[in-house]
């Protein structure tokens, strides 16, 4: 995911180049992306409102995941389409793939599968962080496609992540860590020898490897976003070489 940067020759030139890129999207692709982004903004807004209402009514975070899980699972799984969108929008398939797969993994293979950890504060942490991130991100894409992007949404899209990304990762890692004892005790998703496939798999150690994989992968995602920030907010021309 290395990147190199060239001198862009001023913001005007960059803006012209960016407009040129946007015009290449066909009418059908634009219509689909507007629909998709509006639906995703609405979905995450519904999720956010449901979380706030739950907390106001119950005065506790216990049971919150359970009450919003259907909405979360639906909209987070729907985000798999973003990997397909890489074919039409100027976005990195590698970065998007890691981002989406880690979220799907957290939702289905951790939070959904290990009921005992659903009331952990760390689950609420990543839920809140994801929700704020996605409302901002999808509304950014929608207004951008409509060529009416309010500056504060652009600013929020490329500034909030500075705090939210590490906070979300902390929530995810703490949740996986909390899941480890249950995984070890139950042996879930594990395959022990001997078996007819002659293959063994230990989900407990797999989770430990996943946790360690954040160490090389997260900085790449974070620096990718910092480069995007410089490109969009400061008009720098950035050439990504990863895909
Ligand atoms: C099997 C187990 C696997 C486990 C793996 C473990 C390892 C995990 C390591 C790290 C895990 C991280 C976990 C993440 C947690 C969180 O999310 S915490 C919450 C905070 N998160 C964020 O802030 C996310 C920030 N990151 C991103 O947004 C991602 O990098 C991104 C989603 C992949 C987007 O990046 P990118 O596409 O490069 O940038 P953009 O600037 O948004 O888009 C570039 C251009 O593409 C256009 N575009 C993209 N999508 C759309 C769309 N849906 N509709 C319309 N247009 C779109 C966008 O407008 C840009 O176009 P231009 O304006 O013309 O440039």
What does this 3D model show about the protein?
With 243 residues, this protein is mostly helical. The chain has helices at 11-23, 27-58, 64-78, 81-85, 93-112, 121-145, 151-157, 161-186, 203-234; strands at residues 3-6, 237-240. It has a two-stranded antiparallel sheet. Residues 1-21 have low confidence and may be disordered. Ligand LEDWP2DD binds at residues 18, 21-22, 33, 37, 85, 89-92, 95-96, 98-99, 101-102, 105, 129-130, 133, 137, 141, 144-145, 161, 164-165, 168-169, 172, 210, 213-214, 217-218, 221, 224-225, 228. Ligand LEDWP2DD binds next to helix 1, helix 2, helix 5, helix 6 and helix 8.
Question: Which key terms come to mind for this protein?
Answer:
243 residues; mainly alpha; 72% helix; 3% strand; globular; binds ligand LEDWP2DD
* Neighbour order of strands in the largest sheet: 1-2
Order of helices and strands: EHHHHHHHHHE
* Tally of structural domains: 1
Largest sheet: 2 strands, antiparallel
Beta strand %: under 5%
**Low-pLDDT ranges:** 1-21
Structural class: mainly alpha
Distinct small-molecule ligands in the complex = ligand LEDWP2DD
In percent, how helical is the residue content? over 70%
The averaged pLDDT comes out at: 90
Please work out how many helical segments DSSP would assign.
9
User: What is the number of E strands?
Assistant: 2
Radius of gyration of CA atoms, rounded to a whole number = 20 Å
Tell me the quaternary state: single chain
| Through-space gap between termini | 8 Å
| Shape by Cα distribution | globular
């Amino acid at each position: 995911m290395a990147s190199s940067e060239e001198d862009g020759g001023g913001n005007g030139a960059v803006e012209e180049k960016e407009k040129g890129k946007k015009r290449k999207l066909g009418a059908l692709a634009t219509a689909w992306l507007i629909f998709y982004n509006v639906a995703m903004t609405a979905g995450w807004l519904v999720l956010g409102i449901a979380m706030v209402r739950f907390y106001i009514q119950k005065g506790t975070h216990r049971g919150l995941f359970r009450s919003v899980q259907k909405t979360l699972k639906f909209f987070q799984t729907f985000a798999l389409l973003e990997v397909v969108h890489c074919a039409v929008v100027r976005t990195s398939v590698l970065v998007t793939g890691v981002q989406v797969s880690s979220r799907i993994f957290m939702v289905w293979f951790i939070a959904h599968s290990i009921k005992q950890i659903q009331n952990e504060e760390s689950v609420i942490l990543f839920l809140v962080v994801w929700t704020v991130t996605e409302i901002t991100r999808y509304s950014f894409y929608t207004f951008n496609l409509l060529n009416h992007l309010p500056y504060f949404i652009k600013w929020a899209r490329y500034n909030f992540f500075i705090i939210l990304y590490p906070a979300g990762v902390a929530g995810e890692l703490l949740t996986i860590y909390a899941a480890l004892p249950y995984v070890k005790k139950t042996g879930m998703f594990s395959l022990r020898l001997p078996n007819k496939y002659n293959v063994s798999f230990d989900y407990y150690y797999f989770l430990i490897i996943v946790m360690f994989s954040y160490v090389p992968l997260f900085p790449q995602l974070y620096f990718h976003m910092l480069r995007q920030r410089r490109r969009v907010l400061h008009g720098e021309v950035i050439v990504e070489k990863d895909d």
